UniProtKB/TrEMBL annotation:
Region (Disordered): 40-104
Keywords, ordered alphabetically: Signal
Biological process, per Gene Ontology: proteolysis
Pfam families: Trypsin_2
Gene3D superfamilies: Trypsin-like serine proteases
Protein name: V8-like Glu-specific endopeptidase
Organism name: Streptomyces eurocidicus (Streptoverticillium eurocidicus)
GO terms, molecular function: serine-type endopeptidase activity
Biased composition (Basic and acidic residues): 49-62
InterPro entries: Glutamyl_endopeptidase (IPR050966), Peptidase_S1_PA (IPR009003), Peptidase_S1_PA_chymotrypsin (IPR043504), TRYPSIN_HIS (IPR018114)
Amino acid sequence: MRVTAGSRPSAGPIALAALVAVLLALAAVAFVAADRGAATDTPVADGTPKGHYEAPRERGEEAAEAMRTVVREGTARAAAPTVDRAARTEPLPPSDPLEAAAADPSPAVGPLFYTGQGEPGHGCTASVVHSPRGDLVVTAAHCVHQGGFRTDLAFVPGYRDGEAPYGVWVPTSVDISPEWAENRNPDHDVAFLRVRRVGDDTPVERVTGAERIRFSPAPDRPTRVIGYAVGDERPLACQNSTERFGRTQLRFPCQGLPNGTSGGPFLTDVDPATGLGTLTGVLGGHDEGGDERNSYSAYFGEHIAGLYARAAGTRG
């Protein structure tokens, strides 16, 4: 979380009492966002040494029940197709000005809600990606693992103005790299979640469609980044070309992607008819997302491809 430094108060008794009150209030805040990310000091559980977590069914039921207090289940819409590589795509010119602005929701993108500390609130973004089982979602690792795997997650694709048009989805499992679990290595700031909708066996991809995922992407690709700022009811989006940041990161220059947009997809080849595209990264990585002017993603190379294969069940 960014904090703007102010002037130093005087050290009189009243000022000291006020300072103590402020510190106590800050300590009581349950939803403290990491840089563009999720809360810390929240319900967590251990996973395996490989970075795998099997979510107990009852935790998902609890999260889904908590979400009933903050979202409305909308009328089901027709399933969106997974993006077709041959489909017509938008040119994605750079935003002018180069700053994120309010955008229409995309069916496969939505906020991650945290339900274990009073009223649920969203603090990160995630998106559905194509997989053999059709149940896979990707986000930043710092959104789902903070000294342990968060046990209170709920994903709402296409969220807008308190409505969940495609339902509420909860994790059945979460996969991260051991390198993230051990020391928060920014080159491994990626997580894959398998999800389900309570009371329904339909895979999420059949409901929302899915982004294709591309590994070892070329830099300098025209890209759209989408994310939900903390507390916002609609997403923000920005367009620009990515660029290399060292050998292990992509940089996306754009202002105005604040806390909550972590985990948002880097999309190329976006189909204007569906809003779906090809995912080449997620907002995170360096500085767990970046600063006011630049956003980052861990580079989706061989190690992220291996993580995807493990999460999708195509490799042990």
